Amino acid sequence: MTAALPLSALENAGEFIPRHIGIDAADEAHMLSVIGEASRQSLVASIVPRSIARASTMQLPPACTETDALAELKAIARKNKVLKSFIGQGYHGTHTPGVILRNVLENPAWYTAYTPYQAEISQGRMEALVNFQTMVTDLTGMDIANASMLDEATAAAEAMTLARRSVKAKGNVFIVSGDCHPQTIEVIQTRAAPLGFTVKVIHSSDEWLAAIGQDDYFAALNQYPGSSGWLADWQMSAELIHSKGAALILAADLLALTLLKSPGEMDADIVVGTTQRFGMPMGAGGPHAGYMACRDGFKRSLPGRLVGVSVDVHGAPAYRLALQTREQHIRREKATSNICTAQVLPAVIASMYAVYHGPAGLARIAQRVARLTAILAAGLKQLGLPALHATAFDTLTIDLGSSEAAQAAVQRALAAGANLRLLRSQCVGISLDETSTRADLALLWQALAPHAAQPSVEALEGAASLIPASLRRTSTFLTHPVFNTHHSETAMLRYIRALSDKDLALDRTMIPLGSCTMKLNATSEMIPITWPEFAQVHPFAPADQLVGYAELDRLLSDWLCQATGYAGVSLQPNAGSQGEYAGLLAIKGWHAAQGNAHRNICLIPSSAHGTNPASAQMVGMQVVVTKCDENGNVDMQDLQAQCEKHSANLACVMITYPSTHGVFETHVKELCQIVHRHGGRVYVDGANMNALVGVAAPGEFGGDVSHLNLHKTFCIPHGGGGPGVGPVCVVEDLVPYLPSHATAGLKGKVGAVSAAPLGNAAVLPISWMYIRMMGAEGLTAATEAAILSANYISVRLKDYYPTLYASANGHVAHECILDLRQFKETSGVMAEDVAKRLIDYGFHAPTLSFPVANTLMVEPTESEDLQELDRFIDAMIAIREEIRQIENGTWPQDDNPLKNAPHTADSLLAGDWSRPYSRQAAAYPLASLRQNKYWAPVGRVDNVYGDRNLFCSCLPTSDFE
Ligand SMILES: Cc1ncc(COP(=O)(O)O)c(C=O)c1O
Fold first, then answer.
1. CATH architecture observed for domain 81-535+922-961
2. What distance in Å separates the CA atoms of residue 195 and residue 208, rounded to the nearest whole number?
3. N or C: which end of the chain has fewer CB within 10 A?
4. Is the CB of 515 within 6 Å of ligand 1?
5. Could you tell me if 688 and 814 are in contact, meaning their C-beta atoms sit under 8 angstroms apart?
6. How far apart, in whole angstroms, are the C-alpha atoms of residue 539 and residue 744?
7. What CA–CA distance (Å, rounded) separates 295 from 166?
8. Cβ of 648: how many Cβ atoms within 10 Å?
9. Bridge partner residues of 653 (DSSP)
10. Is the CB of 579 under 6 A from ligand 1?
């Protein structure tokens, strides 16, 4: 018998660490022997420059078990108070249908998928996104809609810049109705300032009419229905606005639009909003899918991702991302927006909500809300409290005569377990929603007029509709069969399953995407996000109801400071791109405060991710691209020369570390010093933080600002393209320039960058759980394992695909770029062909042609075990042998398993088989595939066709027959 272990060992506080890290001690020993290193630590020491190694370990609570972490987080969650919300202001109660909750929101087949850049393995989620686009297009009455925005407020800000790009009017004023949600106005003001737009906020109808009659503006934004509940027809405004060559933007509520004349019918140019109330819990502000729709003429300038319909190589319809040439990854500082990660999972949920309820079901929900609102208004009138506006869908504003009376009503509602919105000091706002009941009306009447005889719902049931006849919707919507078929739970369940079966996500295979860190999204990390204490709270509820979120914010921020070496963090940015934007705003604000507002040059190495230059452009900085040397490193001479050239105007440099070339550059400290000497600040893009946590900290080696991607390094799943969280982390003197949020009572030097103060608050528990269960030791081990795995792949594949960039000792960081450029010459094979052939082998391709064309960037992460790493390596080696068959003439360059990949079952079952390789070689190039085979639902998708024949809505079902 072995000696008894001490109790502490049996309690196994670190149990989660080996669950998260895929390789065990034996695997590690084997991998080290292949690389030729003695230990994981010595490997890392030979890779991470000594000059930047962390001075001290991260001060984090020690690792704890999954059960303990959940219990600790539950105690924090319980500090939030879940009250009934009548606040509205863009956030409403909603019932997430159970079939969607369990089979989409809680289903790894959906939440662990990546952005659908590889069209052939993403057909399911792209169908859901096309449903989303069709839903938005139909309800808004517009020509085209994109596949989600980050939230309503940022969508409105993007609409402002879309309008600026698209209209003839020359003025630089942007008119905003004061009846827009306050957080929307705030985010617009933040965005407008660096771009030099003047935001004119309007406070009455007369002022609005006067403002749109001027010639000094390029677009005007109103809310429909208004934030106060007011309903108006904006058609006349549209005419006047168009006569000035400007654009009308409406922020519209999709549920209301099932009953209301659509913005398209009023001739709006751009329509934005949130789809939150289509099944996504309020979650203290996010994640929710914002949306944007516009007229056809604006489509080539639309921000964000757009799914279009194309054809595959066999002529079958197939989805793909459309018009990518608008986007930051191609157009960089000339892109229409910096958006990369968006809100795909919430968009899928909203689309499924519409599929499940269908047009009649949605209209019934909306009619119920509208009827209850009309009854509420009639009762209030009976109580001597007529609503401020005669029209409404779901929101009433009631003037209580004095701020004391309004406060007292709010307090009485609170005592009864409900939140009202306090407006303009003496008014209260009440918004009803899908969850509202007859009992709620009684509660509200009682809260507002406690001493009067109470009205009865039954007696007021016939109350007249508050939607004026002229504004009632007469046009149809959601007529496509997809919205009229899956209404039983069985049908819905099977539809959801059928779509996810078409896709590859992390639940089936590693996704070795460089720069994307597709690691484990553990179940215990995901569980808390649907706890009511996190999911069912309104972002603008009183602070004493959000104490749990405040604690989560404080703890997570402290831990991220420990991980990065920075002094302050804001969790508000809801994607990495937004973190970049917020970080650059901080730099800009700081320079201005030093009397250096003229400093506007942003140096960016050519290898940078497209969001970097796109974000710099958004804050009005001028991008100067600096060179990289032949080893992929920042060319220090060029950087120095550019710093000298632009010394007087240098705002900052944006670098990624380790670089997007997958290397720890040894000169990074020196680089930071040079930039500082010239008065600039250093932005370290933290997307590659998975190679740094516990090993080196950007805040210690010279960085001034970084964003993190919690949806990479800190385990928030990618959701098929969002939600993300992009915290911005800064050194001490930049802390005052982190985003504030006046709407939520947080004052500061820089305004809000997201609609909600904590951005995508409801997914923050995921990163909290990860850090809590790993502790400093586990997180450091994860970094080391990620570096070990990347080096193992690089070494094992070196005789087949050389690694393009490595440090002097031949090592890489946490990812490696496999060089495939030579095959074009020898066999006509491109990296894309290898990416598509990997699908036949059951893999999601690595990152294709970023940052170097015709290469594959592989990032295995620490979560993959040795077996999976070897499976990938075996597939890559087998593909190299296939390339050899082309090189030696066995297969023609234009007819071989790579060029014809991926092979669909259909194409292999075709009667005639005239290929120079067998059907077996096509489908089962490795024997192991017979046990576990993924079949791509479509063949290679034709990208050019899709952009030439742009179609972004649901296809007629006959096209699939
Ligand atoms: C290096 C780098 N920077 C920035 C980003 C942008 O992050 P997000 O997609 O969260 O906006 C990415 C995303 O892939 C990235 O790889």
1. 3-Layer(aba) Sandwich (3.40)
2. 23
3. N
4. yes
5. yes
6. 8
7. 11
8. 11
9. 603, 682
10. no
Note the pLDDT of residue 960.
59
Q: Is the CB of 724 under 6 A from ligand 1?
A: yes
Q: Is 611 in the pocket of ligand 1 (CB under 6 A)?
A: yes
Question: Residue 107 CA to chain centroid, in angstroms?
Answer: 18
Q: Say how many C-beta atoms besides its own lie within 10 A of residue 149's C-beta.
A: 32
Pocket of ligand 1 contains residue 576 by CB under 6 Å: yes
CA distance to 200, 242, 350, 659, per residue, from 177 (Å): 8, 17, 27, 45
How far apart (Å, rounded) are the C-alpha atoms in residues 939 and 1? 59
Task: Report how far residue 839's alpha carbon sits from residue 504's, in angstroms, rounded to the nearest whole number.
Answer: 9
Host H or E run for residue 128:
helix 123-140
Rounded CA separation 886/893 (Å): 6
Architecture of the CATH domain 536-760: 3-Layer(aba) Sandwich (3.40)
Cβ neighbours around 747 below 10 Å, total:
8
Residues of the chain with pLDDT under 50: none
Distance 43 CA to ligand 1 centre (A): 27
Q: Report the atom number in ligand 1 closest to the C-alpha of 339.
A: 11
- What are the DSSP calls for 553-610, one per residue? HHHHHHHHHHHHT-SEEE---SSHHHHHHHHHHHHHHHHHHTT-TT--EEEEETTS-T
Pairing of strands 395-399, 728-730: unpaired
Residue 2, pLDDT score: 62
Ligand 1 atom 5, closest CA: 576
For the CA of 516, the closest atom of ligand 1 is 14
Please provide the size of the chain in residues: 961
Identify which of 321, 517, 709 to mutate to test ligand 1's pocket (most ligand atoms within 8 A of the CB). Answer: 709
Amino acid letter at 263? Answer: P
Atom 14 of ligand 1: nearest residue by CA position: 516
340 in contact with ligand 1, CB cutoff 6 A: yes
Angle at 137 between CA 134 and CA 143, to 5 degrees: 120
DSSP 463: P
Cα-based distances in Å from 726 to 331, 604, 707, 708:
22, 20, 6, 5
Same fold, 81-535+922-961 and 536-760: yes
> Is residue 607 within 6 Å of ligand 1 at its C-beta?
no
Distance CA 360, CA 352 (A): 15
**Best mutation site among 607, 611, 859 for ligand 1 pocket (most ligand atoms within 8 Å of CB):** 611
- How far apart are the CA of 576 and the centre of ligand 1, in A? 5
At residue 961, the pLDDT reads: 58
The residue ranges of every structural domain in the chain are 81-535+922-961, 536-760
Confidence (pTM)? 0.97
Q: How far apart are CA 73 and CA 765, in angstroms?
A: 8
In sequence order, the 6+-apart residues with CB closer than 8 A to the CB of 528 are: 70, 73, 74, 77, 534, 765, 766, 769
The helix or strand, by DSSP H or E, that contains position 652, with its residue range, turns out to be strand 650-656
